[in-house]
Amino acid sequence: MRTSKRKNPAGSGESVRPLITRAAIQKRIKAMSRQIRQDFPDEPLILIGVLKGAVIFLSDLAREISGDVTFDFIAVSSYGKDSKSSGQVKLNKDLDSSIEGKTVIVVEDILDTGLTLRYLLRVLQQRRPKHLRVAVLLDKVERRLTEVSADYVGFPIPNEFVVGYGLDYAERYRNLPEVKILSLPAGH
Ligand code: IMP
Ligand code: MG
Fold first, then answer.
1. What is the model's pTM?
2. Which of the four pLDDT bands, split at 50, 70 and 90, describes residue 10?
3. Rounded to whole angstroms, how far apart are CA atoms 67 and 164?
4. Ligand nearest to the CA of 52
5. Whose CA is nearest to atom 9 of ligand 1?
6. Cβ neighbourhood burial of 51 (10 Å; 0-12, 13-18, 19+)
7. Separation of CA 2 and ligand 1 centre (Å)
8. Choice among 39, 94, 112, 168 that is catalytic
9. Terminal alpha carbon distance of the chain
10. pLDDT in tens, 67-84
C-alpha cells in the first residue's frame, strides 16, 4: 500500500493526514471572494500576498474576485531567540507600489500567534490606505498572543501544525493541493 510516509521525498519519518480537501478550499474561496466584492462593489482592490505561504491562496482568491484587482507582495520573517513568539518581525521585501488612498486586502496563509500580522498592519496602516482588510485561509484561534483578527477567514482550525496549499515545513509541502496535518517523528 502507498502511504503518505513513502511519498515523502525526504523519507524522514514525517507523515501527513488530511484536514481540508481541495474541493472544500475551492468552495470556501468562492464564498470569500463574493463577500470581498460585496463589501467593496466598485473599488479597485490591491491584494497584498505575504510571501511565500500565501501565494497559492492568493492565486485562487484573485481569480474568483470580479472586477479591478491587482497584486503586490511583501515578505517578512520572524527573528529573535524564540522566533515563534518574540514578535520581532523583519521586512525582507517591501511592496513595489504605494498603497496610499487605495483599498488593500492583505492575504495570508495562516493566522497563528498573530504577531506577524500585527506588525504588518502597523507598517501598512502608516502608509494611509483608504481601507485595510485581511483575508486568511486558516485561523488557529487558540494560539493567539495578541489582539488581531482577520476580516475574512477561510477555516478556523485546531492547534495542529499544518502543511500544503502554500504552507511549508522547512520549505517543503507547499505544493500539496490540500491542507494536511504534519506529524514529525518522535524527538522533533
Ligand atoms: P504568527 O505570527 O504566529 O501568526 O505566524 C504566522 C506565520 O507562521 C504564518 O504566516 C506561517 O508562515 C507560520 N505558521 C504558523 N502556523 C503554521 C503551521 O501550522 N504550518 C505552517 N506554517 C505555520
Ligand atoms: Mg507565512
1. 0.92
2. low
3. 29
4. 2
5. 110
6. middle
7. 29
8. 112
9. 26
10. 999 999 999 988 755 545
- Cβ-based neighbour number of residue 49 at 10 Å: 25
Atom of ligand 1 nearest to the CA of 87: 2
Q: Of the residues 89, 112, 148, which should be mutated to test ligand 1's pocket, given the most ligand atoms within 8 Å of the CB?
A: 112
In whole numbers, what is the pLDDT of the chain averaged over residues? 92
| pLDDT at residue number 136 | 98
Most distant CA pair in the chain, distance: 56
Pocket of ligand 1 contains residue 110 by CB under 6 Å: yes
- Give 29-82 pLDDT, tens digit per residue: 999 999 999 999 999 999 999 999 999 999 999 999 999 999 999 999 887 555
Residue from 140, 105, 95, 131 nearest 33 by CA: 105
Cell numbers placing 55? 501565494
109 is catalytic: no
- Cβ contacts of 59 within 8 Å, gap of 6 or more: none
